Amino acid sequence: MELGERHRAMKMILHENTKELLRKKYQTAKAYQTKRDIQFDLTFEDYTNLWIKNVDAITHLNNAVIYAVTHGINQTIKLEYCLTWKPEYVRTGSPMNMQSAWIRTAEQSKKDCKLHKGEKKSERSKAKLRKPKEPWSDERKAARAAAMSGKKRGPYNKENASA
Predict the structure, then answer these.
(1) Exposed, middle or buried, 19 (CB in 10 Å: 0-12/13-18/19+)?
(2) Coil, strand, or helix at residue 84?
(3) Full-model pTM
(4) What whole-number distance in Å separates Cα of residue 1 and Cα of residue 49?
(5) How far apart are CA 125 and CA 9, in angstroms?
(6) Which residues contact 23 (CB under 8 A, 6 or more apart)?
(7) 124-143 tens-digit pLDDT
(8) I need a surface site. Which of 35, 56, 93, 163 has the fewest CB within 10 A?
């Protein structure tokens, strides 16, 4: 079977909810990259093909979706896989496309994108590290308090659990 035919065959067995989840992941990835001023040249079809190329990732995702559907679980599926740069394209300024991107586990992505011996942090990165976090605004504090009110939080240590 030719590679293109294999991809089409794989797509046909994807659960509808898997396709919907991939669409959401695609939109999130596109928004993330464009917000960081990175040219994003992947179509949804390209993004799906990147997932299909990583058979472990697409199988894991599809099985998780099928399990959630059959067991009536209506929660966000946490994925350990993400769209990331291939090592030779990290920090090169190249557009994110089929040649420069792939689907990897978050752990593999961190290793691939880590600074290697001899590489230096950019001035932008250094400035970001030096910049202190802004304190929460009164509006944000009030919104957080409202969201947390009425929610039971368990004891933080076992000694207080019996009290």
Answers:
(1) middle
(2) strand
(3) 0.67
(4) 16
(5) 43
(6) 44
(7) 777 877 888 889 999 999 99
(8) 163
What single-letter amino acid sits at 32?
Y
Tokens for 139? 């509006």
Find the radius of gyration of the CA atoms of the chain.
21
Give me 5's structure tokens.
Answer: 């035919």
Q: What tokens were used for 101?
A: 């991107």
Q: What is the 8-class DSSP label of residue 104?
A: E
Asked if residues 102 and 55 have their Cβ atoms less than 8 Å apart, the reply is no
Give the residue among 86, 83, 78 at the shortest CA–CA distance from 103: 83
3-state secondary structure of 96: strand
Q: How many Å apart are CA 59 and CA 18, to the nearest integer? A: 10
Q: Tokens for 68?
A: 């959630």
Tokens 């949804």, residue located: 44
